[in-house]
Fold this sequence. Notes:
This protein has helices at 15-29, 35-45, 50-62, 66-80, 88-101, 105-118, 123-136, 139-147, 157-169, 173-186, 191-203, 207-217, 226-243, 246-257, 266-281, 289-294, 307-319, 323-336, 342-364, 367-377, 388-416; strands at residues 2-3, 9-10. It is an all-alpha fold. Strands 1-2 form a two-stranded antiparallel ribbon. α3 (50-62) runs antiparallel to α4. The protein is globular, with a radius of gyration of 22 Å. The protein starts with a strand and ends with a helix.
Amino acid sequence: xxxxxxxxxxxxxxxxxxxxxxxxxxxxxxxxxxxxxxxxxxxxxxxxxxxxxxxxxxxxxxxxxxxxxxxxxxxxxxxxxxxxxxxxxxxxxxxxxxxxxxxxxxxxxxxxxxxxxxxxxxxxxxxxxxxxxxxxxxxxxxxxxxxxxxxxxxxxxxxxxxxxxxxxxxxxxxxxxxxxxxxxxxxxxxxxxxxxxxxxxxxxxxxxxxxxxxxxxxxxxxxxxxxxxxxxxxxxxxxxxxxxxxxxxxxxxxxxxxxxxxxxxxxxxxxxxxxxxxxxxxxxxxxxxxxxxxxxxxxxxxxxxxxxxxxxxxxxxxxxxxxxxxxxxxxxxxxxxxxxxxxxxxxxxxxxxxxxxxxxxxxxxxxxxxxxxxxxxxxxxxxxxxxxxxxxxxxxxxxxxxxxxxxxxxxxxxxxx
Length: 417
């Protein structure tokens, strides 16, 4: 039995397997672009190592699409077949990934919390706990799970970045910026820490500082996976949008946010959709960009990986005038609510479904309906997940619907005289 770079025991006698696990840890915490290659090489190095299979399954589950879920299954099954003779931590981790794969996110979270309490050096587990809390809109516990392991991981800049993001989501902005800057000071190539500070500056309206901060670090993002690469450029685009520099926003969209996206990646798609919608809310003609992106959204119609993502997809399909797909997806969303566990079902029924009706109505120009549907869900919108900056989009859509519906009412009143 050997130990990984975190000082945790792994059931393997293969130095090559440990090397692969160490690379996986670094790639995961740095959102590296080579993570899949690294972990698959590890499986080849030791086909009897349960954690290599579990990490591979976890990687595919984070991709949040049907094809990747299918890819995860054999690796998860292989990990479950190796439960005998491995450490307690490894068993807990495999159980957490299995719960996630089954949609039992509450069980997965409980297991990640148990790992954090007993094995606080396991930052991969902490990171995945944060991931689940993020998409449940539970900012307080997103922060707490990372803060609770700080004392066990002194000077770990990746953890500082994780804590920084949690602090920002909990509106502790000064502490968040300090922690994010501290992480970046230790390692300039920490894109999640850059991202946390960008959120702070955006929240505080420090547009010029935000642009300077992110653009001064952008050269380090070349080694990022497409999700964080495009997302960090998305934040840069938001700064320019606040500046009113529409041409620069469109240029960033074309060059980075969508131009460098992995077009079939759900998270990359969501970022592009969100930026196009923000542009349109400013009265910008985005040309054929809705149609361009919609061609990649058909596989998303029946997936329902995350409610946050579904609301973006269905809006984009409506803007692209793919109304048959919109109807199919909305019906599929309704059916989906009957198949998931009660822990998630309530959020879908009370928030996601009415929000979808509101987003569709707005895209079709039915502003009165959009207003009435979105007004009900706005106080509960945090339950769909996403960051404050991302969820602000839905509030902007609601305000736009209010403005247009009032304007239409005034026109009708004048005509009726």
